[in-house]
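# step 3/5: fold
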Amino acid sequence: MAGDPDELVVDVQETLNALMQAICRCDATDDETLREASYYAQGRMAHASLALSFWLRGGTLYEPTPALGGLLGGVDLSLDLPIGLLRPPANAMCILVPIEQRKRCADVESIFVFTSKPKCAEPGRVERAITLYAARRKDNEVTQVRDLRMNIGDETCAVHHLLARAMKRRERESDDEYASIQVLWPAVLDYTVKTLLYLSLDDATISQDRTYSNAPKTFPGLGRRKRELRQAQIEQLYDRYIVGPTRPDDWAGAQAGELSLDGQISPHWRRGHFRQQVHGPQGKQRKLIFIKPTLIRADLLGTVQ
């Protein structure tokens, strides 16, 4: 696997899932209890194999702050933007969705993003792929994993076109499953795209948290029981990159209401957005920047009676 980390390791999850389905044969029985047990086993296998693929590729954890979710949640984002703007910072990464943002993200807890290295698909055409895995828990605590693969041959292709192509390949699935992913993937992709765009900004707030690596691993002087308890607690820790501000900026406070001011524009919030800024010699280069939400005509707020 070390010789081909971009393809074979990603296939671990799909291969083990297929193997588990063949073993369980959950659709070939009328026994409801056995069918539920089989689905539970498949869910556990899917989550475990996904974690294995992530570990084998040296994956990196990114944990957006709740404040970043509030900042990007109201951002106008068109899925017409070209896929070339999406350059994940690692070939294998996992975005941990804050609990405050999960409703907006179809109740997904974590989003795994695997990126293959560009390769020559045919003479004159380079292709790469981005594969997303969305993990969420169902009512019975079974982890449900769904995948979406976008093959990219044209970096100017709009994100929504790639999503439509990926969904087209899923039309053979059951009606319930297809209806579910039609709700799931637009929400997950919206959250993922906004997070990746933010990570690509020059002034993005990113800090490395090495809680696990910096934790003590030996405990001289402690008895066996206390030592094992402490070691178990440390194994629950993890290293990650914390992304975004730690608290909302001033703009996230009270919103301006509808004000009746004759002949003047009422104070209001202009939503945040990403845009390409011209820069470089003769303005031939483009740089992605983020414009935060802005309070328009704030000077008029003090004139309201």
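# step 4/5: annotate
The first helix runs from residue 8 to 24.
# step 5/5: archive (pending)
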